[in-house]
Amino acid sequence: MTELNLTQSVPLTRGDDGVLRIAGSRVTFDSIVHQFKSGATAEQIQEDFPSVTLSDIYAVIAYFLQHPRAVEDYLSEQAQAAQQVRREVESGVDRGGLRERLRQRRAQAAA
Q: What is the pTM for the complete model shown?
């Protein structure tokens, strides 16, 4: 009888900035999930991100469907981080240490 591998791997990597990306690309996990939540099919998503394979897109969608709460928490954290960056940029704060502060915050959030 043929043995099937019953485990799946998710093609995601976390960058130094704490952002999840599709392995082997610069496409963010957020981008794929947002498009899927907006009603796009995997094939439509691939049209927008041709550097990502269709199987990787399906794997990411499957992960989202299997772990909706964790993904929503991640997306919320990313949105909060983006708002904080926007506020700092708009307020004209010293931007010299901004990148380092963001890395520290993301490292703390991941821990």
A: 0.74
